[in-house]
Amino acid sequence: MTPTIHAHRSALIHSLGDPTETGIEKSFEYFEDGLLIIEEGRIVAVGDAQTLLSSLPADASVTEHSNSLLCPGFIDTHIHYPQTGMIASYGEQLLDWLENYTFPTEQHFKDKEHAASVAEVFLNELLRNGTTTALVFGTVHPESVDAFFEAAEQRDLRMIAGKVMMDRNAPDYLTDTPQSSYHDSKVLIERWHGKRRLHYAVTPRFAPTSSPEQLALAGQLLSEYPGLYMHTHLSENKDEIEWVKALFPERSSYLDVYDHYKLLGERSIFAHGVHLCDTECQRLADTDSAIAFCPTSNLFLGSGLFNLPKMESYKIKVGLGTDVGAGTSFSILQTLNEAYKVMQLQQHKLNPFKSLYLATLGGARALKLETKIGNFEAGKEADFVVLDYNATPLMSYRLEHAKNIEERLFVMMTLGDDRAIKETFAMGRSVHQRDAN
Ligand code: GUN
Ligand code: ZN
């Protein structure tokens, strides 16, 4: 039996490159009446419907999407699933927020059943918002990571996650030891890394909560297994940076702490990087490390304004992160809305095609997954979303006056949220339908 071919007909857009490098025109492909052809969960072709329809075999099925825009699934390069239930916690900046809200919330993830129930809510929320891949913090408990990967595996999603390593400067109920964190991470790596669409990230929370011994063992894990990710926080808040200086006086910068323990590299993703000096930027670029830009979180915690043009000037890979629960939305559209404002406050513009890139192919590149996901190139996995131009009365009304796809995109990114995600697909299968019953 030959595998079935399925096609989706709609207006369709995807990124081909970073507009900063290619120029706007060459950075994307748009088909007003497009066709996306899928076989066994992978993309076979994308192009003009009129041209491609005639090439379809007789038994191929075609789904038509009206008043819609198809684009690749969104990629969230930094998020905490255990913080789903504490999103929108009032009043603090980073260090007090961690102590007063985050740590007490995370203690409950020792209970695997609790972790599993939150993982379900979390994955539903990602898919409701059109996010098909995420780089995810667990808690210090290995149970939290098992629960997350089990839920992601069941839905056949491409996800990256890891157990938090933290052995100091946190409540006793939430700390491990260098040895136990090394051992527990190893067991999880053996169990999950490379299974189906899952990858493991070695996850020291941030420099202040790890001893030198623990950071050394994190580096050792990375050297022992090829293809592992490294996921942590960096230079988010000024008090945090002062604290790192006091804890590691012999290191020349916050990034240098991680560098010393061999935690930089092409699969290393640092959340925030709001207050980086030139030397740190150069080192991130030289090691091909990536930054997760988390605008809703940076504004919510009053951390500061991320300098995207500076990162571009150093050619540092950048993806978008929601950073829920410090971030205030699971929606990458809303994250782009806030990213635009962060740029405005620094007298810079965020072009809608650059936004599309950051949300899709740029995120894939930051995660070194660009050969698998991020756009509609033939052979890639068919993770995509159907955006609804009529998601709200205001959006319909506003789009009546939109001149072109650039304006449409910008309106979707400014007004859009979960209501704009009509359907989400992973490996060609529908995994979320907004209007289901
Ligand atoms: N730095 C260390 N831990 C965290 C966390 O959970 N959230 C954020 N935003 N920053 C952190
Ligand atoms: Zn975070």
Automatic annotation (TrEMBL):
Protein name: Guanine deaminase
SUPFAM superfamilies assigned to the protein according to its UniProt record, in alphabetical order: Composite domain of metallo-dependent hydrolases, Metallo-dependent hydrolases
Cofactor note: Binds 1 zinc ion per subunit.
GO biological process: guanine catabolic process
Names of the cofactor(s): Zn(2+)
Start and end residues of each Amidohydrolase-related domain: 70-431
Assigned keywords, A-Z: Hydrolase, Metal-binding, Zinc
Pathway recorded for this protein: Purine metabolism; guanine degradation; xanthine from guanine: step 1/1
Signal sequence extent: none
Cited CDD domains: GDEase (cd01303)
Cited InterPro entries: Amidohydro-rel, Guanine_deaminase, Metal-dep_hydrolase_composite, Metal_Hydrolase, Metallo-dep_hydrolases
Function: Catalyzes the hydrolytic deamination of guanine, producing xanthine and ammonia.
Natural source organism: Neptunomonas antarctica
A single Gene Ontology CC term: cytosol
EC number: 3.5.4.3
Molecular function in Gene Ontology: guanine deaminase activity; zinc ion binding
